[in-house]
């Protein structure tokens, strides 16, 4: 037993070197992530500023998929080359049917909302979320982001554990550029 304890104590300086190397890698990759993607995972598709609705329809301020915050729709700003844009929001579905009407169709037909729902017709409200800008919420209740070095280290740790790293990579690719996969592959290696 005494030999085992002495052996463990003798390996502590070598483990310190490994921890120092890991801290250095975390620090470098964290700085790169913060510089490239600070605030980008908050991009959402919002309604236009002058968008008005007549009637009793209440829409959220930005597009939220029906799966909630666990799978957010992250769009790419106009200056970035991200994969997802606001024009790729899927049409709204109600009762298993794809909605196809515009808000003007409801007013032009003069039909009440109840009549439209009874006939299976509905307004595709998702088509009006076409302005991509920075919102206030990051994915997974704010845990996944590169807004500061602390959160970047949390994301880096999650990536090197290989748990959910592909989802994080897709978020960044949606918001910034397809070629961001290089960062994540280098981090894993």
Uncertain residue ranges: none
Q: Can you summarize the main beta sheet?
A: 2 strands, antiparallel
Helix content: 40-55%
How confident overall, as mean pLDDT?
85
- Overall 3D form: elongated
H/I helix tally:
6
Rg from Cα: 24 Å
Give the distance, in angstroms, between the N- and C-terminal Cα atoms. 37 Å
Secondary-structure element pattern, one letter each: HEEEHHEHHH
Widest beta sheet: strand line-up = 1-4
Total number of beta strands = 4
Which structural class best describes the helix and strand composition?
mainly alpha
Strand content: 5-15%
Overview of the molecule:
- This protein has 189 residues and is mainly alpha-helical.
- It has helices at 2-37, 103-109, 113-118, 149-160, 165-175, 181-188; strands at 43-47, 93-94, 97-98, 129-134.
- Helix 1 crosses helix 4.
- The radius of gyration is 24 Å and the shape is elongated.
- The mean pLDDT is 85.
- The chain crosses the membrane at residues 12-34, 143-162.
- GO terms for molecular function: high voltage-gated calcium channel activity.
- One of its GO terms (cellular component) is voltage-gated calcium channel complex.
- InterPro entries: Ion_trans_dom (IPR005821), VDCC_alpha-1_subunit (IPR050599).
Q: Outline of this structure?
A:
With 189 residues, the protein is mainly α.
Keywords:
189 residues; mainly alpha; two-stranded antiparallel ribbon; 8% strand; ion transport; membrane; calcium transport; transport
